[in-house]
Every structure is written in structure tokens, then in C-alpha cells.
Amino acid sequence: MKQTTTPAYFSGEQRYIRIVGTHNTVNKIFHIVAFECMFTNKTFTLEKGLIVPMENVATIADCASVIEGVSRSRNALLNGDTKNYDWDSGYTCHQLGSGAIVVQLAQPYMIGSIRLLLWDCDDRSYSYYVEVSTNQQQWTMVADRTKVSCKSWQSVTFDRQPASFIRIVGTHNTANEVFHCVHFECPEQQSSQKEENGEESGPGDSSPASQQLDPHALQAPSASSLPSSPGSNSRSPNRQHQ
């Protein structure tokens, strides 16, 4: 059984903590398996009661996960590896016109930027848009690059707003009918950007990233459900996210 650890940060002196469940996607009961309360001297910037993160919170260590999308490697999209990917592995994908790549953060944060690496082992380009949500019911579009040819690194900035889910939807690929992403970070890390040999991020820079699979969101991989290779021209619906 999969267990999810969800940290929550707040400031001030506290004596009582009340946890009230408001939603369950399966039934009408809220379940907690374990509870811990700890103290830290680390300071946080708060806005509207939510943390404004300075470091990348879309990591496995920070309990982020990929809940929609297909990849051969479970943690590829969030493992920070931006060097080891090829035609067969190291990316997360979804069929154009069906599904998306969705990242869930451990808790709502005030987010104003993200950074993507689109698969870039050839000269293809992609188009896409990005939405954010706190409940997976109401989505706000924060980037529309559906009419832009995007390659390799993508820097996306927007007005800061609450977000615990980030949805990346590919709309075009000049090579085939699948959208491929190699890396995702939130918020964008300027230090990481400088390490990429000073490459400039923008609509012309993008590369697909690998994704972590949520066993509750995807069926077990089979020969027909493994991610479509970037070099494949297949448009079979069998390669869609299930």
C-alpha cells in the first residue's frame, strides 16, 4: 500500500492543532495514518498564509509526486537528472489530445514560476500550456505556448498564486503525436539555470522530462502502455496515458 507523507509548515506559537478533512476522492471519510509535530528555526516567507518557496519543492524529498503521465522510470521527472536521457528513457510523456503530465506538490504553496526541460535529442519542437490548481477542480492557465515552437529548457513565470497541482498539456510535436518532458522544477532555480552552460530559457528552449508514476493514477505498465519513444511515429491510442 502506498503511503504519502505530507509536510505542512506554519509560523507562530501553537498549542493545539486541528486537522479537518474536507474531501476524499473515494468516499466520505478522511483518514490519517500517522501524525508528527516538529519545530524548526528556519524562516519562511508567507503570503496569504502560504509559504513562498525559494528552493525547488517539486522533488521526491519534498514529497512531490507525478500523478498523471507515462514514464519507464518512476521518479524521472522529479529526480533532478537533466543529463541522462535518450530515445528510450529519462522522460515522461502523454498522447497529444489525451491526458496530461500532472505534478502534485506536498501542500499548497504560493508559486510564481516553474522550469521544464523538453526532450531535445533532435531538432523537433513542441507546443504546450500550463495550468495550476489547489483542488484539481478549478484550473488557472499560467502559460499559453500553444502557438509557439518550444525547444529544450523552458522558463515559465507568472503572477504568484496558490498551487498544489501543476498540469502540463502538450498540444503539438513536429515529430509525432506525443509530448515528452525530461525535468520539472518549481519554483525555477536560477542557480540550476546558470549551470546549464549559461543557456537562455524561453519559448525557444524546451526539453521533455521523465515522470514519476502514481500507482493509483496509472495501471501497471504493459507492452502497449509503455511511453512512446520520441522517435516513434506511431499514433496508436494504445500509447495513451491510461
TrEMBL record:
GO cellular component, one term: cytoplasm
Entry's transmembrane regions: none
The protein's name in its UniProt record: BTB domain containing 9
Residue ranges of every copy of the F5/8 type C domain listed in the record: 73-179
Domain of life from the UniProt record: Eukaryota
UniProt record, GO biological process: adult locomotory behavior; circadian behavior; modulation of chemical synaptic transmission
Listed Low complexity bias regions: 218-242
Residue segments, region Disordered: 189-242
